[in-house]
Write a structure and sequence with these properties.
ATP-binding; elongated; 47% helix; Rossmann fold; 21 helices; hydrolase; P-loop_NTPase; DNA recombination
Length: 457
């Protein structure tokens, strides 16, 4: 009888002698041990069940430990999610089944190593991936904790709504991410062209691959529109008053630095609101972090800026027109590396909820705003021009303009005092050009409300 005959039973050839013996009934199955693990789980924690499993493993009590592991995996990993939530102070943390299995194997490996053993010594047991270790960086954990199934479903629906312009930009940026070739892009589009919609799709596409996307914006309000959004100053540690020599506060080995190193894509919305030194500070810091010697900007990362140079630019106290231009993003040495991608179609006009008259009025207003931004009003001009605002956009009451604005937006005083619907206030706001105007209008509005005025200091 040959060795091959020993491994064959009922015309089935088994790879190992142990499998052949198990098929012949020479070896007992592990059901009794599996049942014991189940019974122990009734009154013990998952950590105790793992201890018992390791004891069975090291004593060679299990004939097919890999099958026992598969059967009892839920019991062995029952506390993993809770432990990670408690460790990181993240009550809403959700782990996938694969992540729970990985962390359970890591805990089993720790127990084995304490006794001088390892999973690698058991041929049939699953092996840990190379360099497998729990994520201890809470910032990375947060970026990997999205509901990927829901995100993928939303992405697949929304991608069908993209315009041809948006799809072309989407494909180019995703291609740069997948090929890991880096790149600096600027998506130029006026309000309503779907830049936020594009950020949502780009971040979902990359995150669904298990990669990290950092979504940032120049202002706090703009960052709230992005999933996982943060201000650029907060995310990158940009100095408050950067200059041509500044760098970001990103110490090597810190959680924030390691998060940025792991990022596959960085999105920065409303970028023209920042001075060029902010971007140059980030460029210097990323080159240092990534050890970049290839002369690629931002350490070879794929970074996408967005915004509209027609809108609010950066603020420099007492600066003239020339100083403002020289401090702009497109005056930076980085601009020569930047590929500008344009959006021109107003997505708000494509809404199904607009009547014909509403769509017409919105189109006329959008075209007028765009003409103002492009300097096409009162041409020819050298950048200074008098702009006549159409009367339908004005409140024509010179006697008491503040009261007129208040009444137009919020109604009369009696209605305002009786209003209890929070949505009414969420849908209304009075925008002011200066802090002095803000304080004036706030005082006026507060004087209309009942109750005693309290100043908190």
């Amino acid at each position: 009888m040959s060795y091959e005959d020993i491994k064959t039973y009922k015309d089935v050839f088994y790879e190992g002698y142990k499998d052949a013996c198990y098929a012949r009934g020479i070896l007992d199955d592990d059901q009794a041990y599996i049942d014991d693990l189940v019974r122990r789980s009734y009154d013990s924690s998952a950590a105790v069940v793992r201890d018992l499993f390791v004891l069975m493993l090291m004593s060679d009590s299990l004939c097919q430990p890999e099958k026992s592991l598969g059967t009892d995996l839920e019991l062995l990993s029952e506390d993993i999610e809770y432990s990670r939530r408690k460790h990181f102070n993240r009550p809403g943390l959700i782990l996938s089944d694969d992540e729970k299995k990985l962390y359970a194997l890591i805990e089993i490996e720790k127990l084995l190593k304490r006794s001088g053993s390892s999973l690698s010594l058991y041929e049939s047991m699953p092996k840990l991936p190379e360099n497998a270790k729990p994520i201890e960086n809470v910032l990375i954990l947060d970026e990997l904790s999205y509901d990927l199934e829901e995100m993928q479903s939303t992405h697949d629906i929304d991608i069908m709504k993209m315009t041809e312009e948006q799809r072309k930009i989407y494909d180019e940026i995703i291609c740069a991410v997948l090929e890991e070739r880096g790149g600096m892009f600027f998506v130029d589009g006026f309000g309503g062209t779907g830049k936020t919609f594009l950020w949502k799709l780009l971040s979902a596409a990359v995150r669904c691959r298990g990669d990290i996307v950092l979504t940032t914006a120049s202002s706090g309000i703009a960052s709230l529109l992005l999933q996982g959004g943060r201000t650029a100053h907060s995310r990158f540690g940009i100095p408050i008053n950067p200059d041509e020599f500044s760098t970001c506060t990103l110490p090597h080995g810190s959680d924030k630095a390691n998060l940025i190193k792991e990022a596959s894509l960085i999105i920065w919305d409303e970028a023209p609101m920042m001075r060029k030194h902010c971007f140059e500070s980030l460029d210097r810091s990323l080159n240092d972090l990534m050890g970049n010697h290839s002369k690629k900007p931002f350490g070879g990362k794929v970074i996408v800026f967005g915004g509209d140079f027609r809108q609010v630019l950066h603020v420099i106290t007492g600066a003239g027109r020339a100083e403002m231009v020289l401090a702009a993003m497109n005056s930076s040495y980085l601009w020569e590396y930047c590929k500008v991608l344009k959006l021109t179609k107003n997505m708000r006009l494509c809404s199904d909820n607009l009547t014909y008259e509403e769509a017409r009025d919105l189109k006329e207003f959008s075209e007028w705003i765009l003409a103002v931004g492009d300097g096409r009003i009162a041409e020819p001009n050298d950048g200074d021009a008098l702009i006549d605002i159409p009367e339908e956009f004005l409140i024509m009451d010179p006697k008491d303009p503040i009261e007129t604005i208040s009444h137009t937006i919020y109604g009369d005083t009696d209605s305002l005092r009786g209003m209890k619907d929070p949505k009414f206030f969420q849908e209304r706001a009075i925008l002011c050009p200066t802090n002095e105007d803000v304080n004036m209008i706030n005082d006026h509005m507060l004087s209309k409300l009942d109750g005693k005025l309290v100043v908190l200091s």
